[in-house]
Specification:
It is built from 14 helices and 8 strands. It has 314 residues and is α/β, with parallel strands linked by helices. It is globular and about 55 Å long.
């Protein structure tokens, strides 16, 4: 793709389950301050898991060519989170032998919001991550590949379900293309913060760009504080309850470190610090927790460098 003499603008949105309310709120404020739709402001939008759902919502013409605003995506979580992560007295036991949750409510919500939209309706290049369990390789949905490869034009609902198939929470998503079958899991197992993948994709798309601005919207910085005295005794069962958040957080923080030192790249990480206890859970949909997260967000937004981003995009 061609580019002007201006820096290429990239938006990346983390995974994190119900904590998707964090980037949705941050991006709503960013859009307000920028004064235009985010798909117009960014040359590429990437997302993983819950961030992938947000990216698809704000980056595709899901109905009559119009995308959702970040504020409308926030409503998806607030209004449907309790049904997507619906707990019962058997949830804990069920999680020992299979996924904690049925995908039915998630799929119903995705169909309600994304309807029959196709990936070809992307309004700016989109990069949505998943992981192919059968091939044991990353699987990226790339809207900009559709022109040359029409078989990449899946339903947006399918892509949203694949990117959000978090291990232990939901079953993998079965995707078929021609004679190929894929068992797709949440992209958060390897790229929960998709900023580096988005930067690499932007390098490929915009080879002549003089520089890159990467804006990364997180889902909150977990502070689990796992102590040696506890972890030293863990075996398979002990690690089973911790390994998903440990993997997802560690890869996100590694990306933060790497992007800070890349040449010709201005990296802005928009993150809520110090989520502790059940507030850091991907599936805590209690009214108290949702209110607490929004309260923390209001105070954090005041300190974020959103004005600097507005200047950098020009």
């Amino acid at each position: 793709m061609s580019t002007s003499s201006k820096s290429v603008k990239v938006l990346a949105i983390d995974g994190g389950g119900i904590r998707g309310i964090i980037p949705a709120t941050i991006l709503a404020e960013l859009q307000r301050r920028i004064g235009t739709d985010l798909w117009r402001a960014f040359d590429l939008i990437a997302g993983t898991s819950t961030g992938g759902i947000i990216a698809l919502g704000i980056g595709t013409g899901r109905k009559n060519g119009q995308p959702y605003s970040p504020a409308e995506m926030l409503s998806l979580y607030l209004e449907n989170g309790s049904s997507i992560f619906k707990k019962s007295p058997l949830t804990g036991v069920r999680g020992l032998f299979g996924p904690k949750y049925s995908p039915a409510a998630l799929e119903k919500t995705l169909e309600k919001y994304l309807q029959a939209a196709e990936f070809s309706s992307a309004l700016t290049p989109l990069l949505i991550s998943s992981y192919d369990l059968a091939g044991q390789i990353p699987f990226f949905f790339k809207s900009h590949r559709i022109a040359a490869h029409p078989d990449y034009n899946w339903k947006v609902v399918q892509i949203a379900r694949a990117t959000s198939a978090a291990p232990t929470y939901f079953p993998p998503f079965h995707l078929e293309r021609d004679s190929q079958n894929y068992a797709l899991a949440d992209g958060g197992v390897y790229v929960n913060n998709p900023s580096m993948a988005a930067y690499a994709e932007a390098l490929s798309l915009y080879r002549a760009a003089p520089g890159f601005v990467v804006v990364s919207a997180g889902t909150g910085d977990r502070q689990d504080h796992i102590q040696y005295s506890s972890a030293r005794h863990w075996g398979l069962f002990g690690w089973a309850t911790k390994i998903v958040p440990v993997f997802m957080d560690s890869v996100s923080e590694a990306v933060d470190y790497e992007l800070k030192y890349l040449p010709k790249c201005s990296y802005y990480r928009l993150q809520v610090p110090n989520l502790t206890g059940s507030a850091a859970d991907m599936d805590n949909v209690s009214c108290e927790n949702l209110k607490a997260l929004q309260k923390v967000l209001r105070s954090t937004l005041l300190r974020m460098r959103l004005c600097s981003i507005k200047s950098a995009r020009n």
